Amino acid sequence: MSKIIDGKLISTMIKDELKEEVALLKTQGIHPGLAVILVGDNSASQVYVGNKKKACEYVGIKSFSYELPIETPEADLLELIDTLNRDDQVHGVLVQLPLPKHMDEQKVIMRISPAKDVDGFHPQSVGALSIGLPGFVSCTPAGIIELLKRSHVDIVGKNCVVVGRSNIVGKPVSLLLLREHGTVTICHSRTNNLTDILQQADIVVAAVGIPKFIKGEQLKADAVVIDVGMNRDENGKLCGDVDFDSAKDHVAAITPVPGGVGPMTIAMLMKNCVLAAKSNHC
Ligand code: NDP
Question: Which residues bind NADP(+) per the record (predicted)?
Fold first, then answer.
């Protein structure tokens, strides 16, 4: 039986550490604040935003919530971001994606001050990550590295295979694994011989978006598997990009879905907010 990497437990540990840090910051007059903007009534987004608010409450971060109707003009959203960029009580600004079709996501992300870009999606944050400068690292990739480190998985020199090359998961997690001295291979929909590559992998990060796409027999027996996928299977049940049933007795360690990477994403968002509050007060 593989070791199950418990993201829920690790994320709670992180949030508990942050809770203590926030309490200390408050004694120094620093009250971390996060503004979350939701446009429209996408039900999944509403759940994500609700979870972020709950995490803020738990850690002691003040959350400022903005729920805008779907027909809000892009200019109004940009104006709200400008206001929040100037607000001293707000240390992090987050716009929940996806946005309605009439809005240009890239333009909206670029409007957030890089000093408050706690999602780490601003090109300045992405650029800083790619050349090894300090900056906000996007939350899911940062959470993956934290999961590996807190599970005592050695990354140095290891063959790390990332399946998926999206801007929000695949690319940034590849850069982070490289920063940790892993030997990184990035696979995508045009990759030939995926199974051959997977069979060389000491660490696999699956961020494909296809339910149960990677099977246990494609993986090495001593592999550590981080499953980022959040999909619904044929019965509507939440599942990952890795076929957990065939992998769980086959590999050294694996994250479950749910309860693996998901909770880490929110914990790292809280961590970025605290970092933002501290840096904005330097
Ligand atoms: P995207 O759809 O943006 O990217 C998917 C990637 O998978 C693409 O790079 C694509 O390649 C690649 N891919 C598709 N088909 C294949 C294939 N047959 N073989 C190899 N690679 C393939 O997804 P995201 O990165 O946004 O998300 C991935 C998953 O992670 C989703 O299930 C999502 O819900 C989940 N997720 C979970 C989060 C969490 O907090 N737990 C946060 C973010 C995402 P190509 O570039 O060539 O098209």
Answer: 164-166
